[in-house]
Amino acid sequence: MSFQFAHFNFNVLDLDRSIAFYRDALGLTPVRYKRTDDFTLAYLGDGKTGFELELTWLKDRTKPYDLGEDEFHLAMAVEDMDAAHARHKEMGCICFENPAMGIYFIEDPDGYWIEIVPARKQ
Predict the structure, then answer these.
(1) Structure pTM?
(2) Residue 101, Cβ neighbours under 10 Å: how many?
(3) Which of 40, 52, 51, 50 is nearest to 12 (CA)?
(4) Which of 71, 97, 107, 115 is an active site residue?
(5) I want to staple 95 with a disulfide (CB 3.0 to 4.6 A). Which of 44, 47, 85, 107 is the partner?
């Protein structure tokens, strides 16, 4: 038996705002949707891998989600760290930097942290 990653989920208050953030910050775009009367799931892809970020919007949700102690995150690799850092700095979404490790984190509109790491050299 073998398992592979399929998707990761973030719950969001404003789906359009979140889709715009992930498009502008990370270049992710919707690859499919699932809609019901009570919720919408938007699956975002990077156009390179099969991994998807699932954004879940619940119709009746009005309060921000409790993210606990923020001890989880999604990581994204990028080839040009300087260009990525400049874009995220301009967007005002950098929430933590660790220059010694060569990484930093951005925060999405709902408070989720995304770690930005340099792409691994093959």
Answers:
(1) 0.88
(2) 9
(3) 40
(4) 115
(5) 107
